User: Fold these one by one.
Assistant:
Number 1:
Amino acid sequence: MTATRRQFVASASAALAGMTAKGERPLAGSFVNDAFAAGHRIRDRAPISPAPREVRIPMVIVGGGIAGLSAAWRLQKRGFRDFVLLEMNDQAGGNARSGENDVSRYPWAAHYVPVPGPQALYVRELFEELGVLRDGVWNERVLCFSPQERLFLYGKWQEGIEPAIGLSRKDREQFQRLEDLFAASRSSGGFSIPMELGLGRGPRDLDTLSFADWLRQHRIDSPLVLWYMNYCCRDDYGALAADTSAWAGVHYFGSRAPEEKGPLTWPEGNGWITRQLLQRVGSFVRTGQLVRRIQRQGARYLVLTDSVRYVTDAVIYAAPTFLAPYLIEGFGRLEKFEYSPWLTANLTVDRPPRGAGTLERAWDNVVAHSPTLGYVDATHQTLRSQVDRTVWTFYWALAEGSPAANRALLLQKDWRYWSEAILRDLERVHPDIRGCVSRIDIMRMGHAMARPVVGSIFDPRRRNLARRQGRLLFANSDVSGFSIFEEAQFRGVQAAETILHRL
């Protein structure tokens, strides 16, 4: 059974005291990319001083994640260059940011893109432009090398993340029953990526119950099967099955081909895509620009920052939608927009740990029944025959308990606490990990991913924002109800196309 949040916090606290007493190898590191102070200025509606400069421009994009960068990419491709993109952080990319040290580049959040199916036209168009897809053939260099994934279960590693060793007859029967159900959902055409393309055929009633309830309805009660379903929800949504809409749970499995190549990945994860987009649209991007207010002024909009007052004909709002009530004049409350707090860390690993079991090291490494999501190896795609030093990107979706309480915990506990919690988790499979790691840098994200709670996918307010009405358009992936690359790109490109038509 997965440890509760309280149990894990208690065990990590005890371990922290032990670490001090033992005098372990000194460990360097810090919190990085902390943006909560700026976010809290928006939340607290801090007073705005008159901006010293005014700029008149036809269009402003608010938010420099994949949605905003994709909107900029589309505008630039269409020959429209009279716009600016405003990004709060010092680095654009949102959940597709990356870092680099003397060992490797590495991701800070999103680390892959599943091979896009035929409906993901914009993704395929972008990858053709970037040389990832040519004449219908994917570049083998960016398809994830084997072994791709491994799971630590029953004291040893197995290849693949879906449990495959030590299964009882009940486990096998329930996995097969689920596969049959997901195959039927896949063939219905109601679950697609982008999700907007399948909504007219999808069963909306699934959004009225949780994924956990849906599993119970289909007599799924194997602890191992339920662990895997919860893992998948935590991985894509930062939530447990009990807190996930059944529609979103089925979409996870029913929207993609069962035997697809890939995924597509790079040492820096989706940060590679961000770098390519910035090479094309970086001249339009203004980082360190915290938008404080968006309001109507006659037929135009005012977009206010502390340093510039933008007067514009149209706005593509690509920032997280939960900020809209604090930024957009007269926007009103949002009921079904919830977000999952995450912690990611990059560990500099100076020598390979002994580990447990003998399976060859893999790209994605998951430990069954851990409260974390495991780690990916940044140097997995290298062509070098021997790799001693590497970087592991560690993922932890704080899914148990309320998001608000977990956001508070993220800020309350210091770097030392979270570093110890990470090492304790890794010691389950790498007993000598403390002697291998020299640095741990940690990024805290209080609202990392949209959480598709029950009733959120077909929430009337969300569906209204997706219709792209007027000249203030919403483009963040959370308009889809969940945060994946394809949805962010689709929303950004669609918003750009719509605004170009109206202007």
Note: The chain has 14 helices and 18 strands.
Number 2:
Amino acid sequence: MQIMYRSTRDSQLRATASQAVLQGLAPDGGLYVPETIPSFDGSWEELSKMSYRETARRVMRLLLTDYTEDELQSCIDRAYDDKFDTEKIAPLREANGTEYLELFHGATIAFKDMALSILPHLMTTAAKKNRITDEIVILTATSGDTGKAAMAGFADVPGTKIIVFYPKDGVSVVQERQMVTQRGANVHVVGIHGNFDDAQTGVKNIFRDPDMNRKLKEHGMRFSSANSINIGRLVPQIVYYFYAYGQLVAEGRVKPGDVMNITVPTGNFGNILAAYYAKQMGLPVAKLICASNENKVLVDFFRTGAYDRNRDFILTSSPSMDILISSNLERLIYRIAGEDSSVTARLMKELSSDGVYCITEQMKEGLSDFYGNYATEEETAQEIKEVYLRSGYVIDTHTAVASKVCRKYREETGDPVPMVVASTASPYKFLRAVITAIDPAKAEGSDFDLIDVLRDISGVKIPLAIEDIRTAPVLHDCQVDPQDMEKEIGRWLGLD
């Protein structure tokens, strides 16, 4: 069955899967969503015997229906290869009665690798399918991890350029170092004097700017996105929830068909939305637990039905979640609004103009799959220490937020259902915060001095991604104010 995609803000705007991947954002500023959500067509016993690559093919072919089997298999084989440091790609690690789904075994040691390893291949394949000869310019805002993972995926890929904007003082030392040392003649990294929401808003506005798009066309270029607003990012993320369930069945942790719960540390809402789509496709999931840090705009939304970004922006030890405008929530809003694009368009307009919107009581009923809670900075540090002391397992700050919220959920509800926590980054990306939580006396010296300290604490081999940046030269030092983002793009691309 051919599945088409349409904009959340205008249902008349339709695209094939490959066209949606190429465009990233719909022409009206909406996000592409599948017109129908297919059902998984295998048995749970069958799923439990599949490798990650086999699971990816079975899940992705249901949603990316205009890619041929051979095209999709080629993309999967090139993405999920030896750049991952474990054959399982996304292994489960049990600690203290919780299953941690380790999504950080890729080239940049964060969960973004899971989708951004395959997106360049999906995109270049889509360009050929649609006879696109323009150079594709990937324009991306990052809160820390997307930028590096996208650059690693697109570096020196023929027919592409990539520009990444990140908040200069809003990422960890390791995250910044990973970005500014990125090699590739087609790569440009820009720090902005603002926060992630400033970067994300700027990117969205540039996408919609008719003058900028006209200039690009004149120079044989077109924009696309590697952010989680691109359906080519979202579909690969659905895969690892199916794979996690298959592992639970294979290990006898759940019986085939029994439910699991999923807790996800959430910022831009893409990762937990993928879990929601997995449930809609038939994956046996009971509750989706949305875990926030002190920027708890999503928690307040789930509790009240009001999304209000008019609040202080807090810099935390889990910077990839320091977000007040969760872009992918728009896809859920569209779903619970009965797929009425006019409702979604109105609410997104209110968010843009007033910084707040409220959903109806009927729409609130559509949120019953979700539970929202948050962890303070103190609770996050305590969770890192407690998990370590009880099991010897070291988790990063984002995973700790999810782990603490998972604990709160269980204490509040007494729910005995097996729990999978999405572990979204290696603790090596957030060295100082992790070591300080476990043993403050050892958190001395530079961040690079702490690499060896964490190795000794965790007993985990230093990832290649970390070894590389210890000596890598800084190649990118550009900084701009948010209002100058478009000017910098034009300068670097030679549009003026």
Note: The longest strand covers residues 160-167.
